[in-house]
Amino acid sequence: MNIYKYLWFLGDKPKDGKVTIQPSNKTIEVKNNQSILSAALDQGLDWPHDCKFGSCTSCKAQLTKGRIKPTSDYSQVLSKEEINDGYFLACQARVTMDCEVEVELGDLVRVPSIKTDAIISKTEMLTNDIMKVVVQTKNNIEHAGLPGMWAELSIEGLDRPRSYSYAAAPKNEQPNEFTFFIRKVPGGKFTEWLFDNERDFNQKVVINGPFGSFYLREKNTPIICIAGGSGLAPIKSLLEGGVINQIKRDVIFLFGARTQEDLYCIKEIEELKLNWNKEHNFEFIPVLNMEPEESGWTGGRGMVTDYFEEKYIKEKGLEISDWQGYLCGPPPMVDAACQLLEKHGINSDEIFYDKFTDSSNL
């Protein structure tokens, strides 16, 4: 029996409770309106996660004592065997009593999140469906996150917060400003409001962050970055951090888009290239997969992963087995990039990614 689905429809209401985490034997307090994952992160624990809304399964844990109440049906992402063995998604689970769970906590950098009121102070259309959005808080907030992390944005009436990556390195932001690149999702409650020219421009927005495990790991080997669509945001932020710290690493950065009209921030990326550590190379290659043949475009064409394999691996004989990969964009692109990099020798634990899904995928 899918016990979690049963509890979702007929189970007890969530209650305040304690969750003991094994094998680390740590205990957290969980409020009745809080997911187990959110409570763990708020209390400074490195509980594995990538998305917080039930699509990546990184926060999977096993329930060994007590009961939980799912906030979604796990059968879409967990196998029947996993569910029968008590596995659940911590980002989609609330407690109904004190519980004990098993999950291996990590040692990643986790920055305590700050939740505060704000307004949207500036917007700029970057493409026909991607907007640059600057969120301004009422008070100066310390930019404590690492380049590549993300935050939650919400407005009154929204069923749940939406997650967006910061589009600038913290040191490049004003004290009370946070920049995002947000793609319009047809039918999406938040983006339909955001892109509406007649919306209330003084409406309160709640920002909560930073979160995530997408940030630059220390190493001396070269980096391959692949971004698609609004997935440019965390890659840009991460590379800005590289410029600020003048890291000593070569970079190949491929940006996949449909047509020239879907390219943006090209000038900013060229500035990153110009200011990169002078002892190391920075290559930037936009790759278009739907650009008309007669347009005169002389840059890369095709799927971004195919282009990298053909032009760099096969033609140039590039050896990447000791490199690190940083990937952000639509799930099919990220999956294809992961497979490609592993195929050519990069260990899976040296590949870091954020899959950009939207509410239509949940």
Task: Explain what you see.
The model is unreliable at 1-10 (pLDDT under 50). The protein has helices spanning 3-10, 36-42, 80-84, 189-194, 232-245, 266-275, 304-314, 331-343; strands spanning 17-22, 26-30, 60-65, 68-70, 87-89, 93-95, 99-102, 114-125, 130-137, 150-154, 162-165, 177-183, 205-211, 223-228, 251-257, 282-288, 300-301, 324-329, 351-355. It is globular, with a radius of gyration of 21 Å. It has 362 residues and is α/β, with parallel strands linked by helices.
Strand content: 25-35%
CATH architecture of the largest domain: 3-Layer(aba) Sandwich
Low-confidence stretches: 1-10
The total beta strand count reads: 19
CATH topology of the largest domain: Rossmann fold
The figure for the number of domains is 3
- In round numbers, the mean pLDDT is 91
Write out the strand line-up for the largest beta sheet, numbering strands in chain order.
11-10-13-8-9-12
Number of helices: 8
Order of helices and strands: HEEHEEHEEEEEEEEHEEHEHEEHEHE
Fourth-level CATH superfamily of the largest domain: Nucleotide-binding domain of ferredoxin-NADP reductase (FNR) module
Computed structural class: alpha/beta
**Share of helix among residues?**
10-25%
Radius of gyration: 21 Å
* Anisotropy-based shape: globular
The profile of the biggest β sheet is:
6 strands, antiparallel
